[in-house]
Design a protein that fits this description.
globular
Length: about 120
């Protein structure tokens, strides 16, 4: 994990132009904090399915947002986790991108251990 953070994050944080469309469309966004002051990351699964994002794009976008949260919304020793809301409003059960959700969880567990509340 430390190698990934040292080698991977500087490159990830410079790619904000690459993710502008998804940020503007509201596929992923951070909004507010919970009562423990952890930032809340919102994932709109309907928009993610409508955008037909590839696994590589989703993992890159989540790396960018998670990295942004680590560097801009965390307080070492006090606030070190975030909360994720998976919004499936208006998404039929058969359209849930299970393989993409699985990839996000596996990658997040590897790259950002102990961060997801």
């Amino acid at each position: 994990m430390q190698d990934w953070l040292r080698d991977g994050l500087p490159a990830v944080l410079t790619q904000h132009d690459k993710w502008r469309t998804q940020l503007e469309n509201g596929v992923f966004y951070a909004h507010g904090r919970d009562k423990q002051m952890r930032p809340i990351l919102h994932v709109n699964m309907k928009k993610m399915a409508d955008e037909q994002m590839s696994e590589e794009d989703i993992l890159g976008m989540t790396d960018y947002l998670h990295s942004y949260l680590v560097y801009n919304a965390m307080v070492q020793g006090s606030i070190e986790q975030w909360v994720v809301i998976w919004d499936a409003t208006d998404l039929p059960l058969s359209a849930v991108p299970v393989n993409l959700l699985h990839a996000m969880v596996v990658h997040g567990t590897y790259a950002f251990k102990q961060r997801n509340a």
